[in-house]
Every structure is written in C-alpha cells, then in structure tokens.
Specification:
It is a single chain. The protein is 76% helix and 0% strand. The protein is mainly α. It has one domain. The protein is elongated. The chain starts with a helix and ends in a 6-residue tail after the last helix.
C-alpha cells in the first residue's frame, strides 16, 4: 500500500493534473502569452510519460478505485490541455470557451479524488506527500 502511494506521488509530483487541473491551463497561458510555446510539447511529453507509467503500476485491491480515478483524471486533464494548446496556437479562441464546463468537471473530479486519497492514506497510515 505504501509503495503504491509512493509510486503515485513520485509520478504526479510537479504534474499539472495531480490535483489542480487549473494549473495546466495557467501553464499553457503563461507559455502562450510569452510568445514561446516550445515548452508546451515538453510539458505534454512529461505528462504523457507519467500517464503511461501510471498505467503500469501494480495496484493493491483497496486502491483500485483510487487508481482508476487518478488515471482517468490524468488522461482527461491531458486531453483538455491539448485542446487548449490547439486553441492557443491555432489562433481560434472559440473552442476554448467550450472547454470551461469540462474544466469545472475535472476540478470536481479532482476534489473527489483528493477526498478519497485522504481517506485511504488515513486508513492505511500512509503520509500525505509534502
């Protein structure tokens, strides 16, 4: 159990989908407003690598729901980020407006996942990440 959480924490450390989907949008906007979007590909490559590694983790039975939610949120946030990137680099802000409800949905999912994470860690004596 502790190993699973240590692995998840290590994979999600610094990733924008690790609990705050708005962090990804903020990073994207910073890149876009600076005029240099070259960092976006590196950002998404790191996130895709983390998602791939999440898929390969050995998951203890009590953590299956947690893992499924973590993976689903990571994939959703990555997809949203790619759509935002396409809107920013394509010069068409119209589709970006359609992403707001999806972003709110991802935030709700992140809050539910954080609550589940806290319950599991407390039940099994696993400390929260720093």
């Amino acid at each position: 159990m502790k190993r699973y959480f240590a692995d998840v924490d290590a994979l999600l450390q610094g990733q924008s989908f690790s609990g705050d989907p708005q962090a990804l949008a903020q990073k994207l906007l910073q890149q876009a407003t600076s005029g240099d979007t070259s960092g976006l590909d590196a950002l998404f490559a790191a996130q895709e690598a983390a998602v791939h590694a999440l898929r390969g983790l050995e998951v203890p039975p009590p953590c299956r729901e947690h893992h499924g939610r973590t993976l689903a949120l990571a994939e959703k946030t990555l997809g949203l980020g790619r759509k935002v990137q396409a809107g920013l680099t394509g010069g068409d802000a119209g589709p970006l407006l359609q992403l707001a409800p999806l972003g709110r949905e991802a935030e709700e999912e992140a809050r539910a996942l954080q609550a589940l994470d806290r319950r599991l860690r407390q039940a099994y004596g696993v400390p929260a990440p720093p």
